[in-house]
Design goal:
Number of strands: 28
Strand order of the largest sheet: 8-7-18-17-19-20-23-16-15-11
Number of helices: 17
Helix content: 25-40%
Radius of gyration: 28 Å
Largest sheet: 10 strands, mixed
Structural class: alpha+beta
CATH architecture of the largest domain: 2-Layer Sandwich
Distance between the termini: 37 Å
Oligomer: single chain
CATH superfamily of the largest domain: Bira Bifunctional Protein, Domain 2
Number of domains: 3
């Protein structure tokens, strides 16, 4: 079942004619030829193939979905309107009509609601005036999963039942209830709040980054593997490796000690079994030598066990361990897998920091928040392109309100604050940087959490000034979030910019090719090769037997940051005409000036050598 919920000032329809399926159905009552209602939740419904086989559960879940949304809106009128255009795979007409009739009867039995309906199987015209607030337009995909029963952790179950209070923290530190906040100040904050409170992780159509990652030969699906596992082509691997090297450098300079731990752990380990029930993720499980193991979904386990065996003094705190996990596994639900946004196998830079007490943990958290914001700057994603959020247990928030104000001050824009009445997870507070993609869906990139449970459960301790063994607090941090999701955000950002008329580009330091030389004729190839050796950066040469115009267009399609057309004049002269992406005309530079330009663009950024043959004529196609 697909549902589109539209909170409307008014809605009306009128039957205009029959369709070819009308003869298969019962006659339509005359009173349903037209209908109207004011201040109503219009529920547009598409009954999908298979819904008839799960009729009872589908009806229950759909009615619950509509009623819960009505309660949030304080709306008591519902209009059920069949709308087949929401889905390409529809149920048989008679079964669909029956489900709609039963849904109407079931919801009409509730005395708290007034329920209207439109007829199924005929052409209709309708007029609608949708209200303009964050919850006025919401989509849902409702299904009954078949196959084996899924056993969920207590944290997954807690995540579903948690009740939140929402605030907006202004940059100057003023907290405002969401129903009092002027969302016109920030469209992206409006979209994120709507996604957080009502949005679905399930994508109704492929997001544009999937087409872009394939067109640019960066990343692609691997049909021989499980869903959510990808193949990385040379260009994509260049970007991935540069991001990995950059985050390694950031955390090394920050004072984190880099380690490496196994990717699988025993399900029978007592501390790990407890942790699995507390962590909101689904695991891959395997059997070896008649023992059951799970594949890690973070670097937590190995670092916990390592810290358990360490001898730690108060003088060592804060103590930071870091691992770049090239293989972390979360068995996300298939409907939530969406390109590089949500995978089952991903690369996650994972740092865990031990702190003596709450003041030290908050101080450390604020430092790591700053690192996270600096990372977004590294990616070229500005503060008006992401939303910062803080999740916090009510008691912790009341005892430590200033740290949330500090975060809002650092961000310089309003942030979303979610307050939980009780502690649902192992952490008492969590900071996130969330990117909003072209479909209005949010994805966390950077995260920092304060964990108050696992050091005790895993027997991690430090010796305090009184020579006592004390359990520390622990921060879970990914300054960048998953590397895969970073590329998703970059591509989605460019898809959004393209719609605004802004020329798409990679950040200079991440472009697979940074400079491309186009020899005008074949006899210029040798000089082009010699020039490439003198220029810094990832330089390649388009020596293919194509016109200059066609090769320039090819470089433009690849978002190459700088292009040099090289003929007799350029070989004989002292300067080179650089065509810089996003700038009008050419910029003449000597080789020394070009190399200084490269150094300026790469200041503080990791450099990875070119990962393809330098001559384009020698390169294979990875996608036919």
């Amino acid at each position: 079942m697909r549902v589109l919920l539209l909170h409307s000032d008014n809605f009306s329809y009128e039957v205009t004619g029959e369709t070819s399926i009308t003869k298969q159905l019962d006659p339509i009552p005359e009173e349903l030829n037209k209908g109207a209602a004011d201040d109503v939740l219009v529920s547009m419904l598409a009954i999908e193939k298979g819904d008839g086989a799960n009729q009872t559960k589908i009806l229950e879940k759909t009615a619950q979905c509509i009623i819960e949304h009505c309660e949030k809106l304080n709306c008591k009128r519902v209009f059920l309107y069949p709308y087949a255009h929401l889905s390409p795979t529809l149920e048989a007409p008679r079964a669909a009509a029956k489900i709609l009739q039963l849904l109407f009867e079931q919801m009409s039995a509730d005395p708290d609601f007034t329920v209207y309906r439109a007829p199924f199987g005929v052409y209709k015209r309708f007029d609608i005036n949708v209200k303009g607030h964050p919850l006025s337009e919401m989509g849902r995909s409702i299904s009954i999963e078949g196959g084996e029963t899924e056993v969920q952790s207590s944290s997954l179950q807690a995540e579903k039942r948690k009740i939140s209070q929402w605030l907006i923290m202004e940059s100057e530190g003023t907290a405002v209830a969401t129903d009092k906040f002027n969302f016109k100040k920030s469209k992206i904050l409006t979209n994120f709040f709507a996604y957080e409170t009502e949005g679905s992780r399930i994508a109704d159509e492929p997001p544009p980054h999937i087409k872009l990652m394939q067109e640019h030969e960066l990343v692609d699906y691997e049909p021989a593997s499980d869903a959510g596992n990808f193949r990385w082509y040379p260009k994509g691997y260049t970007i991935k490796k540069a991001l990995e090297d950059q985050i390694d450098g950031v955390l090394n300079r920050y004072g984190a000690m880099q380690v490496e731990t196994p990717i699988m752990y025993s399900l029978s380990h007592p501390a790990l079994a407890k942790y699995l029930d507390k962590f909101p993720a689904r695991q891959y499980q395997i059997n070896s030598d008649k023992k059951d193991y799970f594949l890690r979904f973070a670097a937590c386990f190995g670092q916990y066990l390592m810290k358990h065996d360490m001898q730690i003094s108060h003088r060592h705190l804060p103590l930071r361990l870091y691992e770049l996990t090239h293989y972390s596994f979360r068995r996300e639900q298939s409907g939530e897998l969406t390109g590089l946004k949500r995978l089952r196998c991903f690369t996650m830079p994972d740092m865990h920091t031990l702190c003596a007490d709450v003041p030290q943990a908050i101080d450390e958290m604020l430092k790591q928040v700053k690192l996270s914001l600096e990372w977004m700057d590294n990616l070229g994603i500005s503060p008006d392109e992401y939303v910062a959020a803080v999740r916090v247990v009510d008691s912790f928030y009341k005892e430590n309100p200033d740290y949330v104000k500090k975060i809002a001050e650092y961000v310089g824009r309003p942030i979303l604050v979610e307050i939980w009445p009780e502690q649902y997870f192992y952490f008492v507070t969590k900071f996130e940087v969330n990117f909003i993609d072209s479909q209005g869906k949010g994805s966390a990139l950077c995260t920092v959490q304060i964990d108050v449970k696992n050091p005790q459960d895993f027997g991690i301790s430090y010796i305090n000034t009184e020579n006592e063994a004390i359990a520390p607090l622990m921060l879970h941090t990914s300054i960048s979030g998953s590397i895969d999701r970073n590329l998703y955000a970059l591509l989605e950002q460019q898809a959004i910019n393209s719609k605004k008329g802004i020329k798409a580009h990679f950040p200079y330091w991440l472009a697979p090719t940074q400079t491309r030389i186009l020899p005008v004729k074949e006899e210029h190839n040798e000089a082009a090769v010699a020039l490439a050796k003198k220029l810094k950066g990832r330089v390649d040469i388009d020596d293919r037997n194509e016109t200059i115009g066609k090769r320039i267009r090819s470089a433009e399609k690849e978002w190459i940051p700088s292009i040099i057309v090289m003929g007799d004049k350029e070989i004989e002269g002292n300067t080179l005409p650089f065509r810089l992406r996003g700038q009008e005309g050419n910029k003449d530079m000597t080789i020394d000036e070009a190399n200084r330009y490269f150094d300026e663009q790469m200041d503080g950024k990791a450099f990875v050598p070119i990962n393809l043959p330098q001559l384009l004529s020698r390169r294979p196609l990875f996608r036919g």
